[in-house]
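agent> fetching stored inputs for the adenosine-5'-diphosphate docking request
agent> found them:
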Amino acid sequence: MSDQPTPMMAQYLAIREANPGALLFYRMGDFYEMFFDDAVAASAALDIALTRRGTHLGEPIPMCGVPVHSAESYLLALIRKGFRVAIAEQMEDPAEARKRGAKSVVARDVVRLVTPGTLTEESLLEARRHNFLASFATVRDDSALAWVDISTGEFRVMPCPLPRLAPELARHAPRELLVTEGARLEDIALEAGAALTELPAGSFDSGAAIRRLGALFNVETLDGFGSFSRAELAAMGAIADYLELTQKGRMPLIRPPVREAMGGAMQIDAATRRNLELTQALSGGREGSLLAAIDRSVTAGGARLLERRISAPSRNLDEIHARQAAVAHLVEDPRLTADLREALGRAPDMDRALSRLALDRGGPRDLAAIRAGLTQGAAIAAMLGDDQIAVLAGAARDLTGHDALIDLLDQALVAEPPLLTRDGGFTAPGHDADLDETRRLRDEGRGVIAGMQADYIAETGVTSLKIKHNNVLGYFIETTATHAEKMLAPPLNARFIHRQTTANQIRFTTVELSELETRILNARDRALEIEREVFARLTRAVLDRAGPVGQAARALAEIDLSAAFADLASGEGWSRPQVDASRAFMIEGGRHPVVERALKRKGETFVANDCALTEGETPAIWLLTGPNMAGKSTFLRQNALIAILAQAGGFVPAARAHIGLVSQLFSRVGAADDLARGRSTFMVEMVETAAILNQADDHALVILDEIGRGTATWDGLSIAWAVMEHLHARNRCRALFATHYHEMTALSARLPGVENATVAVREWEGEVIFMHEVRKGAADRSYGVQVARLAGLPPAVVERAREILHQLESGEDKGAGRPAALLDDLPLFRAAPAPAPVARAQPSAVEARLRDLNPDTITAREALDLVYELSAMLTDSA
Ligand code: ADP
Ligand code: MG
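agent> prediction call returned; pasting tokens
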């Protein structure tokens, strides 16, 4: 055997080499095959069998494969595991290749590179989430971030200095981040959960970017979209270049870029997002997050919009007020809201259907989705009538004027078209005269076959004779072997031509039957061809109106979100917050939507609480003390969530709320476990706290929960103390600060604007009862030991803790220095519960006598006298 690779293997290796960094799916008939290292890696990742095929350079070639029809699920598994996949298709019919010679190989080429940020297939995407591809570029001292969702066409860009990158990525949660080679942004990408893709510097060339973007949007100049910095152009250009690379020239439908101002949204960094569990719970899933608790949207587009608004609450008062007005209007008209939601529920995801059509990955159902979406849209516009509320009126406008397209799709498509274009059957009768005629021929043929079967039965007398069809023989006549003899003998054998004998059956054909078959086949092929043309025509008609259709999709999402907020507000008794440019933060009867929901499921009620951080002379910082489990963390977070919901344009879980625009929101919890990154928890805590002290401005809202907990008591207290003073004097922001250091309550007397608050508990027969009620004032004590008992600590430990606490507290009262000195006096721990300390009686007469005496000053004689005296005292008292 020679070492020369086979022609097919040579082709494989050439394609393999041209597509480094990706697994190669090499199409062979009904399978995508993988070879060599790809096969080894993929078989392990997918848990599929690894086999061999032939040899290369004397070694067996490892191979594995996945069926084409179920390839999407394998693709998804691979992408999730961090692979990229290049898909090489057969570019011609194998028959074509055979014509060139027995040994020639079917032409193949990579038609697409599948990466986490460039998915469009419905099965690979989460309907209710965006799938962003981001790109970060630096040109000289200037940096920018661009991001695109090719499944919806959304494309945005903003200036982004390096320190802002992590928080911005946290906001968009892109699946993939493009950077220049050697940019060293692995950690930031990892933190954001994005796959990192390094591109050569040429991809980020800002000059080339102008050309690439011009081609992408088919414009001479980008001036019409706004003016962009070099860095912004570079970031967008890299995206355009990467799309060309991965989509192999078939460009997705991307809307013109929108430039986002840096101060447009409330800034929320990654730690804060995590901590507040905005879109993901700390446990990892969506369940338990704010998003899961408040999402009442009925369309995927509405859900994506909600996620965006929660991730980036607005800082624009006009925008917030306009959105609130729409929600308020719908709250007041529950009938309209219900009708709207009913209609919205029947509107499919037009954004994603549109993007698949543009990429030539669409099918008849995508056309039907556009039809249904626009039809529902028109109905919704009619329901809104000439509504005066700006947001709703604007949406209604975007939903009208699509009648021509709706009519076209309506008369062209059947009611429930099939998924694939391949088998036809989606075109409605009456749309194309040619098609109708061809279909008639085809169907008549089928009718003729039924008649033919009856004729043959009469002719042969074989009643069990049947005309059947399979893919190998086409149409054939079939009888059982016992009846076949007649047909194999004259005169019948002149007409019935034997084709095949199976175990029990004998199969024949006739000249008439094969002629008819040809006619049917021709008609069928012709019908399919016409349907393909119809599909192309309809797709073009849709894409010609891609702009307005996309606009309509966004209008549906906006209405859905307003209605969802309204439904939530009425269902949960939420109210419209007053949002203005002040620094107020006044919440009456505030609740935590996620905790409340969890309690409700257990049949418990949430205790609503007020919070008043007011501008001007009155306090802007609350120092919250109270025992563990009292509800401090819940209170802190609920106020942060209320601010987010208010600026997202929704109502809030409170009886009343007045919020001065929050520019930045910070939330930190002491001693967060971060072992995964191998940093000490205390270090993490301090790094995160430093970020706040360095950044928070006077419109920020800062939530600090037990900062300083990660280190020794006195260190922790000192740090918490100093942080508080800094927030007060330098940042001058609004803040809620929960602490278990009672010592800090003294700060309120020294710092104007700092006020103590506590979460009330009651003690009853030695047990603590949580009232979950936040009040002004400092907690009287911490109740930690009682809480420990509730948690099921062994009684011996609880008792012991009481003793120690008692010792420490009495030390504090006396102002004794180090508590450790007092602890030296404590008897040793015993496994059995320590007996309650016996109340000490008055000193006895003997003791009193001894205490009064100084041994250094008495003589031997006096000592002896004393012994007699004491002895007598003892006998007296006995
Ligand atoms: P802390 O931070 O003071 O230790 P948490 O905020 O973690 O306390 O709250 C402990 C538990 O108390 C929560 O899991 C919740 O079930 C309950 N809780 C907290 N706040 C309230 C409230 N306002 N009403 C009812 N239950 C509450
Ligand atoms: Mg807590």
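agent> quick read of the result: The first strand starts at residue 23 and ends at 28.
agent> awaiting further instructions
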